Amino acid sequence: MITGGAGFLGSHLSERLLNEGNDVLCVDNFYSGTKDNVSHLVGNPHFELMRHDVTFPLYVEVDEIYNLACPASPIHYQRDPVQTTKTSVHGAINMLGLAKRTKARIFQASTSEVYGDPEVHPQEESYWGRVNPIGIRSCYDEGKRCAETLFFDYYRQHKVEIKVVRIFNTYGPRMHPNDGRVVSNFIVQALRGEDITIYGDGSQTRSFCYVDDLIEGFVRLMASPAGVTGPINIGNPNEFTIKELAEAVLAKVGGKSRLVFNPLPSDDPKQRRPDVTLAKNTLDWQPRVQLDEGLDKTIHYFRNFLKA
Ligand code: NAD
Ligand code: UDP
Ligand code: UDP
């Protein structure tokens, strides 16, 4: 079962698990995901699509749960912040209750946001983070932190088999063109010849992971021996400033877009780069697709998407 299976990452994971011969139950309330993301899988007898909101209980029989349900981009998770916290917290309780009853392994899509605006760089899993509990990003950050707490308490108290991954900025085909995340925003703006909107002076950094690398990490973590719980960082440690990203996209797409500088949203982390030593040592995992190649693939996708 994949909650949030009709989202950007969930649709790639659905595809991967089906290709490996699994039955996939895709659960989604279509808050930020779409049926279009999985329309090519509907009709496959091993794929089921169920409309359901994980803040409500769910009784199904499954043996592995990937809990991805949660809007991931700031504009989506800030649209209804109370629902965002509910999705992370009530959603985790329900899915952990389901895992406890069915004895399923359960995987949590956590986030680099648990580190907040970090004063340790790069971020390793032992770092506890610096998160504002009352800001506009808190519904997401604190919801995800509380979900991690629930996962570890179900592990200690109820012996549920957990796998917690902390995902760093990931991009690729099937990102929502209007979801506001930086890679999709810049590519879509460049392809349309619109201004490229840099928030702040563009000196803040992010490290961008291509979706296929991330999904490989997910599958390896889920298959790891019981007792490998994480939390484990998955991301690409190559770090870029947002201005460098804008310039790279513009150089690839060409056209007449200009770089414009807009106000920086509050609590926007200044830097972010994963330490992936743990993933390398535990899962024998490391990213293979660098930004240059990943941007080409993503630009190709959006070019066709915008034409259609
Ligand atoms: P997404 O918004 O495309 O996918 C999230 C999916 O969850 C959507 O299909 C949405 O409709 C669904 N959903 C939201 N609330 C729900 C609810 N209450 N019940 C059922 N379904 C619900 O985002 P994504 O990038 O695919 O992210 C997937 C997961 O990975 C999220 O949990 C996100 O926090 C995490 N994550 C993603 C990134 C990234 O860079 N893409 C980084 C860190 C963490
Ligand atoms: N739950 C669920 N599906 C299941 C089992 C439980 O959705 O198959 C929900 C249930 O509604 C409960 C939550 O998961 O609110 C936590 O379950 P747990 O058994 O841990 O707690 P309890 O039911 O004892 O409160
Ligand atoms: N950003 C930007 N222009 C945009 C969208 C985002 O400059 O059109 C910046 C944003 O302020 C942040 C970085 O890019 O510093 C990454 O933003 P995103 O929302 O993709 O991810 P997150 O902040 O959650 O890492």
Structure description:
With 308 residues, the chain is α/β, with parallel strands linked by helices. The chain has a domain at 2-171 and 209-237 and 273-288: Rossmann fold, CATH 3.40.50. It has helices at 8-19, 74-77, 81-102, 138-158, 182-192, 211-222, 242-253, 277-283, 291-307; strands spanning 2-3, 24-28, 47-51, 64-67, 105-111, 162-167, 170-171, 196-199, 205-207, 209-210, 232-234, 239-241, 259-262. A 7-stranded parallel sheet has the order 3-2-1-4-5-6-11, with helices on both faces. Helix 1 (8-19) links the parallel strand 1 and strand 2. The chain starts with a strand and ends with a helix. The structure holds nicotinamide-adenine-dinucleotide and uridine-5'-diphosphate (2 copies). One uridine-5'-diphosphate binds next to helix 5 and strand 8.
For this entry, give a set of tags:
308 residues, alpha/beta, Rossmann fold, seven-stranded parallel beta sheet, two-stranded parallel sheet, globular, binds nicotinamide-adenine-dinucleotide
Describe the structure concisely.
With 308 residues, the chain is of the alpha/beta class. The protein has helices spanning 8-19, 74-77, 81-102, 138-158, 182-192, 211-222, 242-253, 277-283, 291-307, and strands at residues 2-3, 24-28, 47-51, 64-67, 105-111, 162-167, 170-171, 196-199, 205-207, 209-210, 232-234, 239-241, 259-262. It has a domain at 2-171 and 209-237 and 273-288: Rossmann fold, CATH 3.40.50.720.
What is the fold's blueprint, element by element?
Elements: E1 2-3, H1 8-19, E2 24-28, E3 47-51, E4 64-67, H2 74-77, H3 81-102, E5 105-111, H4 138-158, E6 162-167, E7 170-171, H5 182-192, E8 196-199, E9 205-207, E10 209-210, H6 211-222, E11 232-234, E12 239-241, H7 242-253, E13 259-262, H8 277-283, H9 291-307
Parallel strand pairs: 1-2, 1-4, 2-3, 4-5, 5-6, 6-11, 7-10, 8-13
Antiparallel strand pairs: 9-12
Helix pairs in contact: 1-6, 3-4, 5-7, 5-9, 7-9
Bound molecules: nicotinamide-adenine-dinucleotide and uridine-5'-diphosphate (2 copies).
One uridine-5'-diphosphate binds at residues 73-74, 169, 181-182, 185, 197-199, 204, 206, 242, 265, 268.
